[in-house]
Amino acid sequence: MFASSCSRALAALVGSVLALCASCAAPSQGQKAISVVSYNLMTLFDAVDNGGEYAEFSVAKGKYDERRYKSRLSSLARVIKAAVPGGPDILAVQEIENSRVLMDLGRALGSYPYKACADDTATVLECGILSRYPIVSLRTHRYGVMPGSQAPRLLLEAQLDAGGQELWLLVAHWKSKLEGAEQTEPERVAAASLAASVIQEILAANPLAAVVLAGDLNENPDEQSSVSYTTALPNTLGMSMDRSVSIASLGTSRPILYSPWADCGGFSYIHDGTSERIDHLIVSPSLAGANDGPSLVRFGVAAPDFALDAQGQPIAYRSSTGTGFSDHLPLYAFIVQRP
């Protein structure tokens, strides 16, 4: 685990290549904005055989090398900068191999002095944070290993000093549905319970705390409406796509988090031809607008033309050709401190 430091930069403006949230206004000129992007980078391995790589990334077998690795970093940085020109103030990533990959991505993007990654030996891929704001503290959390499953990925919890504004960022990558949606749901429920407990701890100390849960949660925000079994979203986490519900929950024993997906067009992933919204930027009631402090004012999906194929689907990376980006699209959000 590590965190490094130096100076920070100002928030950038949103470009025209984005799928924009219809109901959220853009930050007005002169407003202090904090830009956040979350992006599943899709199996971003370095060019060193560490033993845990997927077969298609074997350097020894000639399937991957430094040139292809650097090309991937450059391509992914291009997508991230399309989400927020110049790069976001805070970047939450999923599916990186280790801290070296995170550092190399930071160099490809430029000007990210603060970094956090767990270098978790129990899992092949993990989450990380790049920030232009200081990381004041960092904790990791993990729920217990489920029967017949491998160790779950760590939940990162970072406290940041965003220009005098305290901001809590949680980064997660929940279990996929590869072995079946209902069969794997208990792991996502466990991950949601863990995230909820961490957030409840933060809000118990300060109900107005600004908290963002970012990551690939492998579940649509309205998942519960389409199945008969208990799901992680929205009930286990305690989340609503109705901003007013979240605001009204402020100060209650279990505040309801807010997902802006309902107010936004687009998707972040396509599975078997079906558009999905499994990537998330979920915020605490205060960021939903429950007080006069900082508030989420813009949310959307970055879908640059160069990262989409002729059918409008994300161009996934293929090690066989050394081309492509990710099978996910990045999400962005702007948080503004109201006067």
Task: Describe it.
By secondary structure, the chain is of the alpha+beta class. It has a single domain (18-337), classed as Deoxyribonuclease I, Chain A, CATH 3.60.10. The protein has 6 helices and 16 strands. The chain has helices spanning 66-83, 99-109, 181-205, 232-236, 243-248, 286-290; strands spanning 18-20, 33-44, 90-96, 114-117, 126-131, 135-141, 155-162, 165-173, 210-216, 239-240, 257-258, 269-271, 274-276, 279-283, 294-302, 331-337. The strands form 4 sheets. It has a 7-stranded mixed beta sheet with strand order 1-15-16-2-3-5-4. The chain has a 5-stranded mixed beta sheet with strand order 6-7-8-9-14. A two-stranded parallel ribbon has the order 10-11. Strand 10, helix 5 and strand 11 (257-258) form a beta-alpha-beta unit. The longest helix is centred in the middle third of the chain and has 25 residues, at 181-205. The radius of gyration is 19 Å and the shape is globular. It starts with 17 loop residues before the first strand and ends with a strand.
Task: Give the key terms.
alpha+beta; 5-stranded mixed sheet; 7-stranded mixed sheet; Deoxyribonuclease I, Chain A; single chain; globular; 16 strands; 339 residues
